[in-house]
Amino acid sequence: MTGLEKLKSGDFNDMSQEEQLDGTVIVTLSKRGEGKVYKLHVKDLYGEHEEVLWEKVEEV
Amino acid sequence: MRIIFRGLYAAFPAAALHTGNLAYATDLLVLFQSNGAAWVGYSDYPDYQGEKAGLYPQPEWAAKEGTDKNIYAYGTNKDFGDYITGSYTVPTGKTLFITGFSFIIGAETPTDYDHFLYAWGDIKNFTTGVIKVRLGGVGGGSCTFPKPITFSAGEKVEFWVWNISNITCALGVTAWGYEA
């Protein structure tokens, strides 16, 4: 499952959205007990031209 | 069905038993109070007897079950009238219950920390355009909701913070609750 899929399906407990100066957003998602953190840089989050610029999954 | 809240009844709002609604399924009991609050209980016994029975306010139950949600958003370089938003669209088949909300405003340079740092914080239903909550405060603000702020499947919730001070600031917002 990608980070965007986790966001859209609500498969997380914690989410942070760090707004960038260019209006894009870095979204961080985690779920207790999963041992992973999903980070994705999104342009136009929830918008018509939504686009994931990059994504990475970190083991924690 | 017989229900005995042995040792728990004193901690439970008795009025809910008489005025609220009740739902029951196999090993899960849900009591809804007239103010919208809900309590959830479970037991190893179908009639809720014995020391193994438990009864929790629904937010606490959600944290135990892993359906709780914490949403945080942050942004910098905001002048007077600028804002940040955090957003989330409730997935199909789910309902989002917001039980708490807080926001913060902070100066970005040390020489500005003695200014009057005022901000607004909103919870908005983007889909309907309705502002559900608006708070204001110097330095930020916080509120919890005994009756949760709810959003249905497909609705987009937005958490806003506005800089109402005359200097450049960083803004942050946190909302918490659960999804069921």
Helices and strands, with pairings:
The complex is a heterodimer of chains A (about 60) and B (about 180).
Chain A: H1 3-9, E1 14-19, E2 25-30, E3 36-43, E4 51-59
Antiparallel strand pairs in A: 1-2, 2-3, 3-4
Chain B: H1 14-19, E1 21-25, E2 28-32, E3 38-42, E4 54-57, H2 58-65, E5 68-78, E6 83-89, E7 96-107, E8 118-125, E9 130-138, E10 140-151, E11 156-163, E12 169-179
Antiparallel strand pairs in B: 1-2, 2-3, 3-4, 5-12, 6-11, 7-10, 7-12, 8-9, 8-11
How would you describe the shape of chain B?
A: elongated
Query: In percent, how helical is the residue content of chain A?
Result: 10-25%
Order of helices and strands of chain B: HEEEEHEEEEEEEE
Beta-strand fraction estimate of chain A:
over 45%
Helix count from the secondary structure assignment of chain B: 2
Overall mean pLDDT of chain A stands at 96
Tally of separate domains of chain A: 1
Rg calc of chain A: 11 Å
CATH architecture of the largest domain in chain B: Sandwich
Task: Describe what is shown at a glance.
The complex is a heterodimer of chains A (60) and B (180). Chain A has 60 residues and is mainly β. Chain A is 12% helix and 48% strand.
Structure description:
The complex is a heterodimer of chains A (60) and B (180). Chain A is mainly beta. Chain A has one domain (3-59). Chain A has one helix spanning 3-9; strands at 14-19, 25-30, 36-43, 51-59. A four-stranded antiparallel sheet of chain A has the order 1-2-3-4, covered by helices on one side. The longest helix of chain A has 7 residues, at 3-9. Chain A is globular and about 35 Å long. The mean pLDDT of chain A is 96. With 180 residues, chain B is mainly β. In chain B, 8% of the residues lie in helices and 54% in strands. Chain B contains two helices and twelve strands, in the order H-E-E-E-E-H-E-E-E-E-E-E-E-E. Chain B has helices spanning 14-19, 58-65; strands at 21-25, 28-32, 38-42, 54-57, 68-78, 83-89, 96-107, 118-125, 130-138, 140-151, 156-163, 169-179. Chain B has a four-stranded antiparallel sheet. Chain B has a four-stranded antiparallel sheet with strand order 5-12-7-10. Chain B is elongated. The two termini of chain B are 25 Å apart. Classes of the chains: A mainly beta (60), B mainly beta (180). The interface between A and B is medium-sized, with 18 and 22 residues. Strand 1 (14-19) of chain A pairs parallel with strand 5 of chain B, so a sheet runs across the interface.
